[in-house]
Write a structure and sequence with these properties.
Shape: globular
CATH class of the largest domain: Alpha Beta
Distance between the termini: 25 Å
Number of strands: 5
Number of helices: 13
Structural class: alpha+beta
C-alpha cells in the first residue's frame, strides 16, 4: 500500500506548484486535513491493489477462492468492488496487448529528484515492454473527472518510472491512463514520446521546481492551481484577482504576517464585501445556460450532459426477475424508522412529550459562519462544543 508521507513538491500537488511556484513554501507548514472522501479513496486503492496482485499475471477472471475475503464479505460495498474489478480488467487488457510479456509493477515507488528536489511518489500500476512504458492511475472520486492529457501528476509518475527503468529497458513511447469508474465509463489514455517527456522535464518542470523549492516566483491565481491550495482563503493574490468585482481594496497593515497572506481583519472585511459575489456568479451561470439552451453562443462555455443515476424502467418486473433468479423478496426491501417529526405528528406534541420526551434531546448545532448582524448568540469554544472538521 502507498506510503502516507508526502513530498513538498509531490506529484499530486504538481498542478499547483508548477503553475504557482511560491505556493509550495507558502503552504508548507499549513496543516493537512483529511475527509471521508480521502479515506474512502484510500480504502478503494487498497482493494484495487489486492485484486490486481492476486489476479495478475495469468488472469482468468477474479478467482473466487483467492478473492473471498475481499469480494465475499461486507468490508467493501458493491460499488467499490465493481470499481476494483473494472480496474483489474483494464490492467489485464493492457497486459495482454503487449506483443511480449511486459514487466508489471503494482504500487511502485519512484523518485524524480533529478529534476525536482525531494520529489517521490507511488505509481498505482505500470507496465514496461516492447519500447512502451504504460502508467495507470486509479481515481475513486465521483465529483470531478480527471483527464490524463498533459496531467502533470501522471507525467511525473511516468518520469520517475522512466528514470527507474530506462537503463535496462528501451523506452520510446509513454502512455498514461486514468481509471475513474464512478464517472467515466471507459478509462482514458494519453500518449507522448520519450523525447517529449524528457523535453518537458528539462525545460518546463526543472525551472518551475527550482523556483518552488526556493520559494521564489510570482503567485499566480487560477482555477486549477487554487482549487486545493491550503493558502487560498488567505492568499492576497487570489483575493486581488476577484477584488475588482466587488470594488474593494484592503488597507489594513499586514503587520508581522507574510505580506502575501490576508490578515484576520482583512478576511472579515473582504467577506462582507464578497457576500454578493456568489449570488452574482450563480445568476450569470443560470443566464448563460438559458442562452446556450436557446442556441445563443457563450464564448468559452458549452452545455454538456450532467451526471445521471441508473433507475429501473419497471421496478416490479425487475424485482420479480431477481426473485426468479433465487433472491428472496425480503432481501429486496429495507425497513427504516420514521422520523422524530413524523412520530410527533402521530401522537400530537403534548402526548409525544409525555410518552417519549425523556428519549429526546436537541444537541448543539454545528458551528457555522454568520455576519455580526445575525441575531443568534456567538459560538463560544469554551462551552465545550465539539469542533467538527470537514
Amino acid at each position: 500500500m502507498a506510503p502516507s508521507k508526502h513530498a513538498l513538491l509531490g506529484p499530486s500537488s504538481s498542478a499547483r506548484w508548477l503553475a504557482c511556484p511560491p505556493s509550495a513554501r507558502l503552504t508548507e507548514f499549513m496543516p493537512n486535513e483529511t475527509s471521508v472522501y480521502a479515506e474512502e479513496g484510500t480504502k478503494a486503492h487498497y482493494l484495487c491493489e489486492q485484486v490486481v496482485r492476486r489476479s495478475l499475471p495469468g488472469w482468468t477472471g477474479l478467482p473466487p477462492a483467492a478473492m473471498d475475503d475481499l469480494m465475499g464479505g461486507d468490508a467493501y460495498d458493491a460499488e467499490m468492488k465493481e470499481a476494483a474489478k473494472l480496474y483489474a480488467e483494464f490492467i489485464h487488457t493492457i497486459y495482454d496487448s503487449f506483443p511480449h510479456t511486459p514487466t508489471l509493477c503494482v504500487e511502485q515507488q519512484v523518485k524524480m529528484t533529478y529534476w525536482v528536489p525531494g520529489c517521490f511518489g507511488t505509481c498505482d500500476c505500470l507496465l514496461i515492454g516492447d519500447g512502451v512504458l504504460h502508467v495507470i492511475d486509479f481515481k475513486y472520486g465521483a465529483g470531478v473527472p480527471v483527464s490524463p492529457e498533459e496531467n502533470t501528476q501522471m507525467m511525473l509518475y511516468a518520469l520517475g518510472a522512466w528514470d527507474l527503468f530506462s537503463a535496462t529497458d528501451d523506452i520510446q513511447t509513454v502512455r498514461m491512463s486514468i481509471v475513474q469508474p464512478r464517472i467515466q465509463s471507459e478509462p482514458e489514455t494519453w500518449e507522448l514520446s520519450e523525447y517529449d517527456l524528457i523535453n518537458w522535464a528539462e525545460n518546463t518542470l526543472r525551472p518551475a521546481a527550482k523556483l518552488a523549492w526556493e520559494g521564489k516566483g510570482e503567485l499566480n491565481p487560477g482555477e486549477k492551481q487554487c482549487r486545493w491550495c491550503k493558502a487560498k482563503p488567505q492568499c492576497r493574490a487570489w483575493k486581488e484577482k476577484y477584488g475588482p468585482l466587488a470594488d474593494f481594496v484592503c488597507h489594513t497593515d499586514p503587520g508581522a504576517n507574510d505580506p502575501r497572506l490576508l490578515t484576520p481583519d482583512e478576511i472579515g472585511a473582504w467577506l462582507v464585501e464578497a457576500q454578493g459575489i456568489a449570488d452574482y456568479v450563480k445568476c450569470l451561470q443560470e443566464y448563460a445556460q438559458q442562452q446556450l439552451q436557446c442556441g445563443t453562443a457563450i464564448p468559452g462555455w458549452k452545455l454538456v450532459e450532467g451526471r445521471s443515476v441508473r433507475r429501473f424502467t419497471d421496478q416490479d418486473a425487475a424485482f420479480k426477475a431477481i426473485e426468479a433468479d433465487g433472491i428472496s423478496e425480503a432481501m429486496l426491501y429495507e425497513r427504516s424508522p420514521i422520523s422524530l417529526t413524523a412520530a410527533e405528528k402521530l401522537l400530537g406534541k403534548k402526548r409525544f412529550a409525555e410518552v417519549c420526551g425523556g428519549y429526546v434531546e436537541k444537541p448543539k448545532g454545528k458551528p457555522t459562519l454568520a455576519p455580526e448582524s445575525d441575531t443568534r448568540p456567538a459560538y463560544d469554544p469554551a462551552e465545550g462544543f465539539e469542533v467538527i472538521k470537514e
